Structures are given as C-alpha cells and as structure tokens.
Automatic annotation (TrEMBL):
Alphabetic keyword roster: Endoplasmic reticulum, Lipid biosynthesis, Lipid metabolism, Membrane, Mitochondrion, Phospholipid biosynthesis, Phospholipid metabolism, Transmembrane, Transmembrane helix
Intracellular or extracellular location(s): Endoplasmic reticulum; Membrane; Mitochondrion
Top-level taxon of the source organism: Eukaryota
Example of a GO biological process term: phospholipid biosynthetic process
Organism of derivation: Pipistrellus kuhlii (Kuhl's pipistrelle)
Protein name: Protein SERAC1
Transmembrane is among the record's keywords: yes
Amino acid sequence: MSLAAYCVVCCRRMGTSTPPPKSSTSWKDINTFSTVDIEDHECDAWLLLKKSRSGDRTARLQAVQAMSEAHHWHDYQYRTIAQACDLRTRIGLARSQESDLRFFLPPPPIPALNDDTSIEEELRHLLASLPQTELDECIQYFTSLALSESSQSLAAQKGGLWCFGGNGLPYAESFGEVPSVTVEMFCLEALVKHSEIPSHCDKIEENGGLQLLQKLYQLHKDCLKVQRHIIRIIGNMALNEHLHSTIVHAGWVSLLAEALKSHHIVEASHAARTLANLDRETVQEKYQDGVYVLHPQCRTSQPIKADVLFIHGLMGAAFKTWRQQDQALTEKVSGDETRYTTCWPKTWLARDCPALRIISVEYDTSLSDWRARCPTERKTIAFRSNELLQKLRAAGVGDRPMVWVSHSMGGLLVKKMLLEASQNPEMSSVIDNTRGIIFYSVPHHGSHLADYSVNVRYLLFPSLEVKELSKDCPALKALQDDFLKFAKDRNFQVLSFVETLPTCIGSMLKLHVVPVDSADLGIGDLIPVDVNHLNICKPKKKDAFLYQRTLQFIREALAKDLEN
C-alpha cells in the first residue's frame, strides 16, 4: 500500500478525511482500499498523534501515556511521531519512563568549528558576550578565571586539605599536589553561575550557547562531570518558559531523554530536573539549581501525598552523602540495587514509599578557605538557610506534609529554615506541614572538628561555616535556644542518631566529630549507633537498623497523610 493510501485509510478512521479533489487526479484507486487492508495498530500512531493535540488536557495526557507504552510499532511509526508531534508531546514522551528512544530525532547538525577556533575559545567568547556588570563576587571570580587565566594557573587555584561530611574526611591533597582542571570546566562553572540570572540566559541563547554547549556535550560523551555541568546550565535556562521552544528545537530533549535512562543516578537526576522544568503540562513547580527530585523522576499515575527532604552537611552532596556504606568491590558489582545502592533514598525509600516525592538539595560548602569553591563567597548558616528556603518553596515544598532528613551541618540549616519560615506569613505552610525531622549526627552544641580546625588555623584557615560550628559560637547557641522555644508548641516528631565511633582523618588523627552530648537536641529520641560520622547516614544494607528505623519514623510521622 502506498503512503498516500495509508494516510487516507487512517484519516477515515480518525474521521478527518477530506472530500476527494475535483481535479484530474484520480482517487478511485485509493478509495477502493478497505480499512481491513492494514492492522489496527497501523493507525495507532495517527490516532494518538491527533489526540495529543486535543484541547482537552486529560485526552492529551492519555495520548502521551499510550504512545510511551507502545513497543510493537514499526520504525517508521516512531519516526512519524518524532517528526510530527508538538513541543508539549515531545517533552511528555521524554518524561515517560517506558518511552522508546526512537520517538526522538537526533539533534540537528551543528556547524563545525573554524580551523583556527577551539571549543575553549568559543566558550571564552560566549562568556565575554555576557553582561559583566552588577554581578556578585562569585560570578565575577569564575568569569575572570575562565577569561584570563591559563590552564596551569587555573589548576593551581584548586587544592585543599580536608573533606567533611558526605564525601569523606581524608587528607584530600598534599601541599604540592593540585587537581587537573581544564579551562573548559572553569568556563562551564562560570556559565552555571550566569545561567542563574534570567537576562543572562537570554544572552546565552542569543549568542548560540545552546548549540555550543551541545557540541561540547557530544565531544565529552565519556566525561560525566562535563555533561552534568552542561545539563545544569540547560536546567537553569529551562526555568524561563519563553526559552522552552528554542531549547526543544535545538535538540536538547533527545539528549535529555537518553540521559534520563542512564544508570548513573546523578546524570539521570540532572536530566530529570531539566525535563521537569520544561514540562509545564504536568509540573507546576520549578526546580532551581541544586534542587533534585529523586522520586518520581518521570510522569506517574501514582498520587504523591507527602514530601521527604534530604539536606547534606559540610562538603556533602545531594547524592553521595546518602549512598550505602562503602563495601568491597565484589559486593558492589552484583547489579542488585537492593544489595548495594549509590543513593538509598532513590533506590530503597522510593520503593518502600512510592507515594512520596523525595527531594535532595546540594549547595557548595568548604571546611577550609583553601578549598573554597569561590574564595570570595562567605555564606553564613543564616544566608544559606534563606537561600535554600526560597528554592524549596519554589519547588512546592510546604504544599504537602513533609519530613526533613539532615546530616551534620544540614540539620542546623533545617532548624534555621523552620525558624525563618515561622516568622514569614508567606511560609506558614512549611511550618504547618512539617510532620517530623531526622537528625544524623547534627552538632547542635558544636563540633570537635570545628574546635580542632580553629586551633590549627595556621594549617587549615577554617571557613566561616566551620567557625559557626565551634562550641563557643554565639550564633550556634542562639539557634539552639530559639529552636527549642519554637518547637515546644509544635506538633512534629523528632528522631536523632549519633555516632559512637571516632572518624579517621587521614593518617594523622582519629576524632569523635559530633559527641553524644552535642547531638542531643533536647527533644525527641536520641539513638547512639556504632558507626563513625561519615557512616551515620549510610546504612550498611537495606535491613540494617539505621535504614529500618529511618523508614519506620517516616511512615509513622506521615501515617495519616499516606492513608488519605
């Protein structure tokens, strides 16, 4: 059967066929075909395509879901949808878990670089084209590095001695060693900062940034760090709805759909954030830089009844802080995520409580000024808490019942966010919907590591964040006193865990980072666990006490909400 005949038959079934033309063109041969000549599924693509353009939102969602569940079509049917679907449908298919990647056309060809031009130079030109006035100090810092420094001197800017919180407490680098950092990475870090400003996103798009970033993305297929930075930039640009069309037409949805299916949790989560910001059909919230939904990352028919929020500590991360306790390589390679997971909230908690939206946040911190991501950045706990609270509220936090889960300094941020929300009528829903808080080794009364760092300042030059963890810090004491007064009349539950084992800091020192008395909030249960500071939030396995007690608390705190 010819394509023309196929189209007419499908149009008949859709009820959209037009009268035959009155010209000399003969349609009699086409009209003799019966609708029996092709199987029912042959017309599915056309029927669903029409339905996806319906004025009825429910009909559109049903069409996209049906398309995503189609695994028996011929290649040309997927290609037909890929060529003919609208922006809304394309994004919906990308966010559907079962969608076939054949629904997505390859990105349009990107012009080759001139012989005398490199990617590095193009990135520099893009950065130089962005507004350079009225920038905060951190954006100025990254931009100046990318525009003026050599690769060697850029690498020399990096260094440091300590890691604290989710990524470990080893001696990270010696005085004589510096990481290898390329100019491209510094350009991308600068662009990440610029893309947080809406007017700069417009300039990035106007100056060919979407195509340049795609070129770099394709060039570094084996470098996940580069790809994550690029997707962060696209995710920030997607916060601006007037740029959605250009992002889609530049071919980014195809790349994001593929990234969402990655077995790398971090890569998939970055793609999920960007696609959620593009999907205005089913998502009302906006996920700003550093706010990641671990579950659900795709469109789902599962009603979401509550939120669980994960807040890491100093030098932690939105994903690595919450990994399973490190095990031998032979135990990791089994491929069974119930046995080992790189992010237990996404793997274990999402399966045990599918009606939860699970969010993890990420923010830059430093233990030493030598390791600061931006040396000019001096953010107090109060500043960070306000920044995070605004981001979380934009993500719809406060609209549902919720439980906070925090590690180390992250617990201090949670306390400060709740205090600030209690004083702002526009944030009252955050307080009203808080059902519980879990603290993993939170130094409510200060940390031994902070005291040690201050005492050896000639070596570490402790950052502002570390100084605020000192037992003698007035701000820390005021935060504890104010929170106890606030929590006294509030109807939420509290559960605290605390380490009992010292943490090895390189080969120099074993230190009890948060002692039992400092982890005692003064309300709720306090449970000592025989692990060190790093592993207090990393269960050894799914049936371990740490995870099972955490799961029990979440279920009990949200019991009434999950039943409704």
